[in-house]
Amino acid sequence: MAEHSHQHASDYHEPHLVPVGVYVAVFLALMAFTALTTGVAYIDLGKWNTVAALAIAVCKMLLVVLFFMHVKYSSGLTRIIIVGAFFWLGIMITLSCSDELTRHWEIVPQGWTSVEHIARSIF
Amino acid sequence: MHRGWPVSEMAAHAAHPPGFAHQFETVEQQREAGTLGMWIFLATEILFFGGMFTSYIIYRALHLPSFVMGSHELIVKFGATNTAVLICSSLTMALSIRTAQTGGSKRKIIFWLILTMILGAAFLAIKLRYEWYRDYTEGLIPGVSWLPGGTHTPGVKMFMCFYFFMTGLHALHMVVGLGILTVLVLMTARNRFSSEYYAPLEISGLYWHFVDIVWIFLFPLLYLIGGRYPGS
């Protein structure tokens, strides 16, 4: 027990204290990204609109995770759990899409221009 | 060595830092275990919301024109305002934890927590009054009030279903978050936290920021991704 008490004293590390300035800088960056992603939607970039919107969202997520959620200062074990969560999410999205989007769908009969027209005729 | 509750251990307990539990070797290990456990819960939450995001991706790919049409029914200014409101609430949440870390007074901790709750409630109020209620009066809720316009295809209905289920699940998490914050305010008022022990604040903060991140993805996916430029 005495040995344990000694450990409590010697192994005690203060958790990392994030300066207020860092929090405020992250907050301002998140607000700027929100304005940017909204603004970009009003410019015609073709398929790059989607890429830009998702890239900005990922940047915002990283800022929140690293600084607000303190992952920049967290242990390797915690980081493995987080990376694992996103890895599994990636498996779910990739395998679901690779199935659903590569099926040989029925050829639409002539005169019907989209699957929605078929649906409309049924419902 | 004795097991159970020998007097010597009871005496040692008195010398422990506040909030320190017996099963941990060090205060640091206890903090690490708490954070790790919360992240494992958040991993299940990521996959929970991930199921909806996966179906959204697939149905969007299959019905792209309808999803763009549906997206144009939503009002960007309210979505953008709510994004800003949630980012503000994440900042105030982070500051409440920092206040506890630096040994700030309980009045200051409660100030930041209440501010976080006000911002969270503002998010829900904007969502309800200016979005869902308007959707109801405009007939945009499938199965409840649906007044499809001339151009509305079944795919638009599909998009609106995704919109209500995704924002609904997110709003439910916000309501749970407000409940958690209420408990934190009460715990702070009862002097449960100090610069040595503030794990409930830290862990609840992780939850609150996670809900913020979900919205950071919902906003572009639902409101913006179809493009808002002329001819989109």
What can you see in these coordinates?
The complex is a heterodimer of chains A (123) and B (232). Chain A is an all-alpha fold and 123 residues long. Chain A folds into 2 domains: 1-74, no CATH class; 75-105. Chain A has 5 helices and no strands. The longest helix of chain A has 25 residues, at 76-100. With 232 residues, chain B is mostly helical. Helix content of chain B is 75%, strand content 2%. Chain B has helices at residues 7-15, 27-62, 64-71, 76-101, 106-137, 154-189, 199-224, and strands at 140-141, 145-146. In chain B, a hairpin with a 3-residue loop joins strand 1 (140-141) and strand 2. Chain B is elongated. The model of chain B has no long low-confidence stretch (mean pLDDT 91). The chains are: A mainly alpha (123), B mainly alpha (232). The interface between A and B is large, with 61 and 70 residues.
Number of helices of chain B: 7
Order of helices and strands of chain A: HHHHH
Fraction of residues in H or I helices of chain B: over 70%
CATH architecture of chain B: Up-down Bundle
Fold topology:
The complex is a heterodimer of chains A (123) and B (232).
Chain A lengths: L1 H9 L9 H21 L7 H21 L7 H25 L14 H8 L1
Helix pairs in contact in A: 2-3
Chain B lengths: L6 H9 L11 H36 L1 H8 L4 H26 L4 H32 L2 E2 L3 E2 L7 H36 L9 H26 L8
Antiparallel strand pairs in B: 1-2
Short description:
Helix content of chain A is 68%, strand content 0%.
Structural key phrases:
heterodimer, A: 123 residues, mainly alpha, 5 helices, B: 232 residues, two-stranded antiparallel sheet, 7 helices, elongated
